[in-house]
Amino acid sequence: MRDVAIVAFGQSDHVRDSAETSEVEMLMPVLHDVLAQTGLAARDIDFTCSGSSDYLAGRAFSFTMALDGVGAWPPISESHVEMDGAWALYEAWVKLLTGEAETALVYAYGKSSPGEVRDVLTRQLDPYYLAPLWPDSVALAALQARALIDAGLTDERALAGIAARSRAAAASHPHAQLRGEVPAGELLVAPLRTGDCPPIGDGAAAVVLAAGDTARRLTGRPAWIRGLDHRIEAHSPGVRDLTDSPSTRLAAERAGAFTRPVDTAELHAPFTSQEVVLRRALRLDAPDSRVCVNPSGGALAANPVMAAGLIRLGEAAARIQRGASDRALAHATSGPCLQHNLVAVLEGE
Amino acid sequence: MSKEPVAVVGIGQTKHVAARRDVSIAGLVREAARCALDDAELTWADIDAVVIGKAPDFFEGVMMPELYLADALGAVGKPMLRVHTAGSVGGSTALVAANLVAARVHRTVLTLAFEKQSESNAMWGLSLPIPFQQPLLAGAGGFFAPHVRAYMRRTGAPDTVGSLVAYKDRRNALKNSYAHLHEHDLTLEKVQASPMLWDPIRYSETCPSSDGACAMILTDRTGAARSPHPAAWVHGGAMRSEPTLFAGKDFVSPQAGKDCAADVYRQAGITAPRRQIDAVEMYVPFSWYEPMWLENLGFAEEGEGWKLTESGVTELDGDLPVNPSGGVLSTNPIGASGMIRFAEAALQVRGQAGEHQVDGARRALGHAYGGGSQFFSMWLVGADAPAT
């Protein structure tokens, strides 16, 4: 298989409300940042792929305006997934593997501020049976947390510990939205308190991929993608064991995550309870484990919907690029209660 | 480095109609997928990954419906990707699936595109008001009509050409049992007498709103060798995008369309498309786009596309049949329309297009476009495996 690496990563400052900037305005500095890191211009990029969702923007074809920001002239080879940008990265990685491209630009963005994101996300549920009940994302995560507590796999104190650790890790993160000492807060949907839940915010991220020697030319220490896989589960929470994530485990197996230990794991767990599920599926809780989990603060510090998964891949890659990690695992999720999961294994040379 | 050759070994479509009230969205997509599996004589267990596409989520009012459709498409435990590139999405989706095979990431992939437009109202789904942006003027026809006028003015095409295309495509659709519109009593005079909707586009020169889905099974060389029916081989595929609105844009013949076709022809070794390609399934939602795309795709010199149409070259029994299936003018489940073009091109080179089969078709082009003539995806399929 062809060697492909992440050679640049950039993200916006994640904020609660970006009413004063459009999606394109939010995205442009991030695109310029990653291109500047590699010295590439938009016209040098062989393939471009983005991830976003019309339902956040409240309009059809919302990605077309973002494309204008990329500067698609002369015409570019380009595609879009209506998913988190982590899956746009997956599509771009496949494109590079075919040999049809040497470089790829991947970006994602999401603004939750124009609407009520908890309500909006109910619209991604089964439209005939589930969505009419309007179960929101926090309520569904709370069901999962309750199942974990009932199974004796965690408790409210342990969940609060995950929140505190994540936000402490984000204290020095220049882009994080929620950092430092954050109170556990009141119960939002029992057993989840506000502190167990991600901040609602707007943000964007971008990554540049390159193959083989091109990657070596563009950066001193590429973050090589050694494995990348994603798997989906049944949709209805009622037919799944919410305390487990078989799709994450399978994706990790396929990505080669279990062949050698990783030193870093960037997990896309918007809720503290979901980190418990992911740690178990990814075997990160071994007694002798020295894995640094979510050194960026994870999605509990900033969770721009549709970009937060791509950010996990970018954060893991950036850590490799600056020599803080040699082998990292990155994870992205989509859908209710961790329905769809992607795992990447990244390595420095 | 070498790519794995990609073969189409299964094709399935639903019967396209204005409203499939007998099935849910899940039932609709499963019907097409089931047909494609039957055609390939494969089971759900043979599928390694699912790539699904559709146009905006607002058309059905379901955000990221692939999450809910995972069960219906046998995707549980498998990778599932959701592509969305506006009207070109059906084509783009097939190309993303083809790349999975070409890159040797997966061996056999189910790709599917759908639209169940009867669940809501597509025109208003496209017309949500956005501050500081030009609205689509109540549907796509309002956006495209001025560009048709520009084409007529630029080329001097007589105003009868559009009705010839519509009359041809609707007659071709009578030979395609899956097509939505079956207008047995249509005449050229009736097309020309139909109400003017967006001058110069008449009612009978526009696409319908359809419910429908299209699916294909793509596989590698080994999979193709096991296929019970002839495979269609992918000889070239490409996507191109350009901005919607900018001063330098040529709406009559967008550069992205020309570049996309040129890339596909280069991959497939096509140097004289008019002579080397036997059938074209072209994305023609408004009749005048046939002559326009004939030029954009290199089948005619600039300004000459309408002459091919007028002289009957693009008729089913002509020298270069365009839309033997009846095309988008007869069937338009938007998100699936591009994939239907790709699938119909594959049916032609497999010799399995039934009553609308083009005799001896060996190479066929599938074409899709979307947005404000902004996104393009195309593939060229052949009856023979590509030379390696």
UniProtKB/TrEMBL annotation, chain A:
Single Gene Ontology MF annotation: acyltransferase activity, transferring groups other than amino-acyl groups
InterPro entries given in the database record? Thiolase, Thiolase-like
From what superkingdom does this record's organism come? Bacteria
Q: Which SUPFAM superfamilies match?
A: Thiolase-like
PANTHER family hit by this protein: ACETYL-COA C-ACETYLTRANSFERASE, NON-SPECIFIC LIPID-TRANSFER PROTEIN-LIKE 2
NCBIfam families recorded for this chain? PRK07937.1 (NF005924)
Its protein name is: Lipid-transfer protein
Q: Which organism is it from?
A: Streptomyces caniferus
TrEMBL record, chain B:
The Thiolase C-terminal domain extends over 243-372
Keyword Cytoplasm recorded: no
Keywords in alphabetical order? Transferase
One example of the protein's molecular function in GO is: acyltransferase activity, transferring groups other than amino-acyl groups
What InterPro entries does the record point to?
A: Thiolase (IPR002155), Thiolase-like (IPR016039), Thiolase_C_2 (IPR055140)
Identify the Pfam families for this entry. Answer: Thiolase_C_1
The record's section on CDD domains has: SCP-x_thiolase (cd00829)
Q: What is this protein called?
A: Acetyl-CoA acetyltransferase
Organism of derivation: Streptomyces caniferus
Organism phylogeny: Bacteria, Bacillati, Actinomycetota, Actinomycetes, Kitasatosporales
Name of the coding gene: atoB_2
